[in-house]
Amino acid sequence: MAVTLPRGPATNALAAITLLAFLPVQLLGLTDQAALFAGFIPERVHALAAQGVSLGVPWLPLWLTPLSATLVHAGWMHIGFNLIMLIFCGRYVEQLLGQGRVVIIYIVGAYAAAFGQWAMGAFSTDVHEGLIPMIGASGAISALLGTYALIYSQRGVKAIGPIPAHVVRILWLAAGWTVLQLMIALAGGFDSFFGGVAIGAHIGGFIAGLLLARPLLARRFRASRGT
Question: How many domains does the chain have?
């Protein structure tokens, strides 16, 4: 039986922008150059903090690279998987929260993903870790996945002592996703498909989506009641 997804104009626009940015870079063989110019590189943050300078390019400030990184993908498999997840999770989240809120989750997720990748790199013993560009929309999409998981998951949880049930639910989902990502990292991170997975970005984005879901849902309901 065919599955009909909800309508999602904002989700479709995000997917279209991502695909249109990918096509010329991929067809012209400029992926490596795009990754260096538009990817999020943790070492740039370190340099900015230590010396007050940015290693980015003049036309692209450092603070924009978490967003520009979402437009660069390593290949057809990379962008194909990301677009499938974006359209599926994004449309369901957009159906419930609306167009503006799904864009907010995506943007916040992109920055949370950059922070997660930077934070994970800080614990790495590989001196070259901070020089590897983070590219792809998977971190931002992980935020939508986190919101989707919290809103649409059916399994109830109980409060643990003074911790409310909804907080326990967030903690369980965050812990499960984090453990899954760490297991993927230990297993090799699907390197044969994507050339490496930004585990820290996935964790950061997912947690941001979890944290945004409840307040955005509450605002949506207040707006619908006209209060």
Answer: 1
What tokens were used for 165?
């049930």
Calpha distance 106→209 (Å, rounded): 8
**Residue 3 domain-assigned?**
no
Check if the beta carbon of residue 63 is closer than 8 Å to that of residue 56. no
Out of 48-52, 141-145, 149-153, the most confident range is: 141-145
Q: What's the token pair of residue 214?
A: 């409840």
pLDDT at 53 over 70: no
- Other residues' Cβ atoms within 10 Å of the Cβ of residue 140: 32
For 100, the token pair is 């503006």
Of 91, 60, 68, 57, nearest in space to 18 by CA: 68
Does residue 13 surpass a pLDDT of 80? yes
173-182 long-range Cβ contacts below 8 angstroms, 24+ apart: 173/146, 173/149, 173/210, 174/146, 174/206, 174/207, 174/210, 177/142, 177/146, 177/149, 177/202, 177/203, 177/206, 177/207, 178/203, 178/206
Domain enclosing residue 218, as ranges? 9-225
- The answer to whether residues 70 and 136 touch, using CB atoms and an 8 Å cutoff, is yes
Nearest to 42 by CA among 208, 198, 209, 202: 198
